[in-house]
Amino acid sequence: MSLTPFELSALELSLRVGIASVLCSLPLGLAAAWLLARCRFPGKTLVDGVIHLPLVLPPVVVGYALLSLFGRRGIVGAWLFDKLGVSLAFNWKGAALASAVMAFPLLVRAIRLSLEAVDRRLEAAALTLGAGRLRVFLTVTLPLTAPGLLAGAILAFARSIGEFGATISFVSNLPGLTQTLPLAFFSLIQQPGGEAAAARLTVISIVLSLAALVASELLARRIARKLGSAT
Amino acid sequence: MIEVDIQKRVGALELSVQFTAPSAGITALFGRSGAGKTTLVNALAGLIRPDQGRIAIDDDILFSDAEGIDRRPERRRLGYVFQESRLFPHYTVRGNLGYGMRRGKPRDPALAFEAVVELLRLEPLLSRRPHDLSGGEKQRVAIGRALLADPRLLLMDEPLASLDLAHRAEILPFIEDLRDRLRIPIIYVSHAMEEVVRLADTLVLMSEGRVAAVGAVEDLTSRLDLRPLTGRFEAGAVIRASVAGSDLVFGLTELSFPGGRLRVPHLGLPLGTPIRARIRARDVALALERPRGLSILNVFAGRVVEIAADQGPMVDVRLDIGKPDRPVALWARITRRSTHDLQLEVGKPIHALVKSVALDRQSFSPYSRGGAAEQ
After folding, report:
1. Which residue in the set A125, A144, A231 is minimally distant from B90, CB to CB?
2. More confident of the two residues B223 and B174
3. Minimal Cα–Cα distance from A43 to chain B, Å?
4. Partner residue opposite A129 with nearest CB, options B72, B84, B145
5. Residue B53: CA atoms inside 13 Å, Cβ hemisphere, count?
6. Are the C-beta atoms of B360 and B15 separated by less than 8 Å?
7. Percent of chain B residues topping a pLDDT of 90
8. What is the distance between the terminal CA atoms of chain A, rounded to a whole angstrom?
9. Measured between CB atoms, does A121 come within 8 Å of chain B?
10. Is residue B44 less than 8 Å (CB to CB) from chain A?
11. CA angle, residues B197, B203, B205, in degrees to nearest 5
12. What is the pLDDT of residues B70-107, one digit of tens each?
């Protein structure tokens, strides 16, 4: 079956939004996970709560908050536009931001669990072998966290592909600009006689999700082999 | 010289240790579990920070709260072999070995990659991953990894404790090789007296976070007052001797020590090799007169120095079988009944009988003269 330009545009947009949101939030997610797993500081519970907020808030509320912060007239949005010429309003970058925020708690959670599972005695061993803290992080901690990074990235990607509420209330539903697969699906079932086209989108979504899962499984196996986690 | 004087509180343990040890040969930290041995070694390595005190190696200060010095662990240049090998699971054996290697040649050619691989016979393991190594192999790799970081002091925290008996026997000779072939001083933590006696020159006896005694292994193991700490079951004496000859016809080696000659099963060591022989108290019998018509080859004249009797059926008798100016301690374990029959008392002349066959290979270890002799 060949895809219609409408489907192709939604699929391409979904992939772009998903990949961009994961890639941009990965370093931040790692930093946040590190902060929560390894550091003790006053107000940690609060930080933990704020990171997890998108998980419990209605997505449209998150979208509205993003709009008032990052919209053209929002505090951050206005600054970004004036200083850097970057606009997040009503384009795919805004959709990526919305997806990233919604997926962030899942990402942080997965990485944090994996960081906490890293045997810190191995880090101590690396120190005694003359490795500085940065080298210990890059050569011991990070590789051993790889399974969590992968799991977090896949979860976040899946969450991005499925993101609806925050996206529609932040950047609206504009074909070719912000209309990702779920938003296209929503438009189709609003129209009389759109069911057949909606069914095609359903198949595309299933294929996409399945491909992501299979890819992650293969990657996870390779990592497991490398880490020798047969034990 | 390794100088340690630190205090550290960890949970219920109040660690307060002060000792100096020569920076040559093997210094054993011996004590029951919970005595604070691992805490002390971690403080040396910089993995935990003492509450106060000072740590210095050959006048290089690693920690001193008075001077505000606390060198980071990665800058201390101490090798650390942990109880559980702690190999990096995501590296091959070769990757693990190379992890701590520095650029340029090591100070001692014996610490070059090829030399260490050969010393510990790691060649067949190089491309394998830690998870499919046996416990003994892992520990050999861990030792190699620590050595290749070119340390000036090697810390070994019960490197054999997680191994079964067979694997222990496999690793021990490698550690003896390290001691004899490399010039790296070793601090060896153990709660097994056999290992200590076989390996160490200097002994630091620890008990409940404190140092109970420091000295040459043969001195401390023959002291009665330390017996509760050194253990009663393995009671015995360590004698320093050297290979003086061999009787090829009967397959015997003669060891000479200040009290005479000790004939033991053939050892195959060159003449003059310094050796430590551990003679267990239960392998020594006593006689009032020099016996005749007896199968026992080793008879030493001496006198009773100390009688350690409690209400049990066994009595440990400490003898001096050396010369007037060079005492040599020997322990004999006999029944209380015999003590009574022989009317043993301190100062009484006696003959000690040692069965040659009671001394097996495990009883002997070559030692480096540079070790505790420096004290």
Report:
1. A144
2. B174
3. 27
4. B145
5. 21
6. no
7. 41
8. 45
9. yes
10. no
11. 110
12. 999 999 999 999 999 999 999 999 999 999 998 777 77
**Rg over CA atoms, chain B:** 22
Q: If you measure CA to CA, which chain A residue comes closest to B78?
A: A128
Whether A230 sits inside 8 A of B131 (CB atoms) is yes
Q: Which two tokens stand for residue B33?
A: 């579990």
Does ipTM come in above 0.90? no
pLDDT band for position A57 (cuts 50, 70, 90): very high
The alpha-carbon gap from B60 to the nearest alpha carbon of chain A, in Å, equals 17
Q: Residue A134's closest chain B neighbor by CA? A: B74
Band of the pLDDT at B372, cuts 50, 70, 90? very low
Q: Which chain A residue lies closest to B145 (C-alpha atoms)?
A: A129
Is the model's pLDDT at B375 over the cut of 50? no
Token pair 């805004």 is found at A94
* Cross-chain residue pair A228–B89, CB shorter than 8 Å: yes
pLDDT in tens, B324-367: 888 888 888 889 888 889 898 899 999 999 888 777 766 776 66
Name residue A220's amino acid. Answer: A
Residue B373: what pLDDT? 35
* Residues of A whose CB is below 8 A from B45: 128
- Rounded to the nearest integer, the mean pLDDT of chain B is 87
Cα A63 to Cα A58: distance, rounded to the nearest angstrom:
9
- Are A196 and A27 spatial neighbours (Cβ–Cβ below 8 Å)? no
B74 chain-A contacts, CB cut-off 8 A: 127-133
Q: Give the position of tokens 């009797």.
A: B309
Confidence (pTM): 0.79
Confidence label for B218 from pLDDT (cuts 50, 70 and 90): confident
Write phi, then psi, for A21 (nearest 5 degrees): -65, -40
Is there a contact between B23 and B57 (Cβ–Cβ < 8 Å)?
yes
Q: Residue A65: enclosing H or E segment and its boundaries?
A: helix A59-70
Candidates B47, B71, B78, B86, partner chain A, best to mutate (most A CBs within 10 A): B86
Q: Do A131 and B99 touch (CB under 8 A)?
A: yes
Going by the DSSP 8-state scheme, the letter that residue B207 receives in this structure is E
Chains A, B: CB contacts under 8 A, how many? Answer: 69
